[in-house]
Amino acid sequence: MTSAAAKKAVEATLETIKQRVPAYQELADRFGPMFLYKADLLDRLAAMAPPPPAVDGSKFAAGAPVLAGVDLATWLPLFQESARALLPRLFSILRLDKAAGEALAALFVDPPLILGLAQARIEGNWKHFENTSAQLDAVPASVLLFVSESVFSPALTVIADSLGTPLSSHSWNQSLCPVCGSAPSIAFLSFKEPNDLDHLVSGGGKKFLHCSLCGHDWRIKRNECSVCGNDDSETREIMTVDGVNHERVEACHKCGSYCLSIDMRECDPAPQLDVAQIGLIHLDMHARKNKLTPITLTLWNSFD
User: Fold this and answer.
1) CB-CB contact of 177 with 122 (8 Å)
2) Does residue 300 fall inside a structural domain?
3) Phi and psi of 191, rounded to 5°?
4) Which segments of 73-215 does DSSP mark as H helices, in order?
5) Which domain holds residue 35?
6) pLDDT tens, residue by residue, 192-206
7) Most CB within 10 Å of its CB: which of 167, 243, 293, 304?
8) How far is it, in rounded angstroms, from Cα 33 to Cα 42?
9) CA separation (Å) from 283 to 65, 86, 122, 238, 249?
């Protein structure tokens, strides 16, 4: 996706959130610029990007994401450019004090440290963030993780976009992202689709998961839990709030997890999925009241 298209989707989604749920306006106004800044980077990073990583068919078939075990140094210039552009804005949005800002700024100009954080995030090595946070003193691990994800996300999105054709020739049935191995933050049901053979429109409704880090979308079976694969209708449940049926919680009472979901067949225009989650916090709260755990922790569902 180009920067222009990405920014247009972000702007439209933010406006929809503010019009539909005025209570979220302050949140959307505060964090909306972050999504716009990230979208604005895509064209610049794509122009800098080296060739995409190779897809190892045998490892992929065994369930290993494309970036698993890959030396991320190839994409260091993308991470550095993203950090240079985003860090000052993130410091303002997060309202960090001077000491925290200076500690993070020093961290993200050191190539080995940047790559260490990127590798730890790809590997799900949360202990690395805790240890690094302890060394910084002024920056909590949760803040370090969020800043790191915000910096790495545009670069990883460019990598994921570059893999479109190579990935399409391989099947993937895992609940984690086939590109970076991260958990999804939200699911969606696909749009109605034109049928070129008989000029009809198909029902759509295929289920996809959206990566919480690189933004890649991949298809999964619609009647299965996105965490444990449970397909028992007696222990899976769809929850909605206030009769808005196209925005819902997909709950699994077998593993106790939930995933937010949007039915795109009822959306015009299509929401930007990372931004849309700002406007779905009430669904997260509803799921938490039902003793469910989110499929992945985000800034929007991390509350007591």
Assistant:
1) no
2) no
3) -65, 160
4) 76-94, 98-107, 111-123, 126-136, 141-162, 164-168
5) 3-167
6) 766 555 554 456 789
7) 167
8) 15
9) 30, 29, 28, 11, 7
